[in-house]
Amino acid sequence: MQVSNHVHALRIPFTITTNMGVLDRFVYAFVIIHGSQICLIDTGVASSQQLIFDYIRQIGRKPEEIATIILTHSHPDHIGSVRSIKQITGCKVIAHSGEKEWIENVDKQFTDRPVPGFNSLVGGSVTIDRIVDEGEFIDLGDDLQLRVIHTPGHSKGSISLYAETDQVLFVGDVVPIPGDMPIYDDPLISIESIKKLKAYNKVNVLLSAWDEPKTASSIDKVLQDGVEYIQRLHNTVIEVVMAATSMEAVDICKRVLESLNLPLFMANPLVARSFIASLRYMEDVNRPK
User: Fold this and answer.
1) Distance in angstroms (rounded) separating the CA atoms of residues 282 and 277
2) Whole-angstrom Cα distance, residue 28 to residue 42?
3) Distance CA 93, CA 129 (A)
4) Tens of pLDDT along 12-49?
5) Buried (b) or exposed (e) across 251-288, using 16+ Cβ within 10 A?
6) Burial degree of 230 (CB within 10 A; 0-12, 13-18, 19+)
7) What is the phi/psi pair of residue 281, to 5°?
8) Domains detected in the chain
9) In the beta sheet, which residues pair with residue 132?
10) Which of 143-147, 196-200, 206-210, 268-272 is predicted least confidently?
């Protein structure tokens, strides 16, 4: 689906097998056409390269034109096909230094953050060719630049990207969807990152990896809803923990989900890990604003 002059959004479905059963998920990757070359933002899960290549051919271009892949962060559904695509096209890979270790050593990522089905989601490690940080520009040519916005919280090196020419803002997994599975490393930092995105007021299209493309009229609400969702999660964790004499992480996770009427199938180690991150702020329940 073409969403602006240069940008196409590609929805990639996949499944995750957990002890609660098989979960149907999806993630977006983005194809940017600039002159005679193509830039990808994220690559979906392992084997997604065929879907990406088919779409590129469908719009009259060639997969061999892929010159650059920008990874918004290192999680499996974003880096899954990067190794295969780089091997096939010889493209360069760009990411933030905070994600370097997990992109270049996926075995370490699995050890540090054991995601269910990890090995089926990730096609292997890949070397990053360029490290970027806050305020840098990635010049794609054809008068098209992407401004790098460091937006940690979901992960320490998460980046968003702003294409002023098309007035498109790519946000990776930075902005959560209320009611969806909450995954983040730090609630306070996540909220501050979303606030940083609010400063970009010349945005016609907001592109999130785990939500449908949003147009100008709904963008402010999407960002504010994301802030409020994290606030509710954070405050509920604190309330649950303060009401208990002792509780294991999995019990905290289940109790928080129950309190917010969220489905219990979300009670997994990743969600529990997110909720436990709130405990570092227990001295100030209302700190995230």
Assistant:
1) 10
2) 8
3) 5
4) 998 877 666 677 889 999 999 999 999 999 999 999 99
5) ebbbbbbeeeebeeebbbebbbebbebbeebeeeeebb
6) buried
7) -110, 20
8) 7-229 (3.60.15.10)
9) 96
10) 268-272
Distance between CA 148 and CA 136 in Å, rounded?
A: 5
pTM of the complete model beyond 0.85: yes
Burial of 4 (C-beta count, 10 Å sphere; 0-12/13-18/19+): middle
The order of strands in the sheet holding 214-215 is 137-141, 144-150, 159-163, 168-172, 205-208, 214-215
Tell me the two tokens of residue 190: 């996540």
Angle between helices 216-243 and 249-259 (to 10 degrees): 130
Tell me how far apart the alpha carbons of residues 286 and 289 are, in angstroms, rounded to a whole number. Answer: 7
Cα separation, 171 vs 25, whole angstroms = 18
**Which residue do the tokens 């390269």 mark?**
49
pLDDT tens readout for residues 60-112:
999 999 999 999 999 999 999 999 999 999 999 999 999 999 999 999 999 99
